Amino acid sequence: MLLIQDRGWGAVLYSSSAAESKQVLHDAAPKRADIAFRIHVIAMLAATGKTVSIAKTLGGGRTMTMTSVPSANVTQAVPFFGVTNMEASLRFYVDGLGFQMTCWWIPEGPEEYEPNGRIRWCRLELGDAALMLQEFMPSRRPKDALGIGASVSFACEDALALYREFKSRGIARLNRPFVGNGLWVVPLSDPDGYRIDFSSPTDAPEETELAE
Description:
It is a single chain. This protein folds into two domains: 3-68; 80-201, Roll (2,3-Dihydroxybiphenyl 1,2-Dioxygenase, domain 1), CATH 3.10.180. The protein starts with a strand and ends in an 11-residue tail after the last strand. It contains four helices and twelve strands, in the order ββααβββαββββαβββ. By secondary structure, it is α+β, with helices and mostly antiparallel strands. The longest helix has 12 residues, at 35-46. The chain is globular and about 55 Å long.
């Protein structure tokens, strides 16, 4: 097990191998022991299958701990959204956010969907991220609002660059980016009310909002 503990502006790393500890600290640039540093260390070590635990003391005596565990043949989490109108969802995700459709399903047989040549399920990808959409069968559309109490966050290199790209594509459901937990967060809601965020590390003060 390898433990990295962030203490204020310093970082303490424990490992069974001193040489391994030195190499990890060298690769991770320990002079930058902020949230961005911790995120990148976790990503780097998780990719090698190591167990990583990082603790950060926050204001008011609070502590935030981030832990990564070795994978067990798990390579990707793919959100699966039930949607009410596939065409509207594809305009949002493909035309607006730049996702690409890599797989899709068009019913052909006698099912609850009308065989009218419309896409009823698809997988969309953007970079290394993915999500799936399926239109509710007419008899199974929920009566309650969708997306309440859940959100999906996409980690990226530059969330603000994506924000500007989304604006240029005409996305109407754009809120002003803000800083939370050491991340620039670009919050959006899709046509069915599912909340999705695009976020990237930053040194900007907490609760900063993008000035435009």
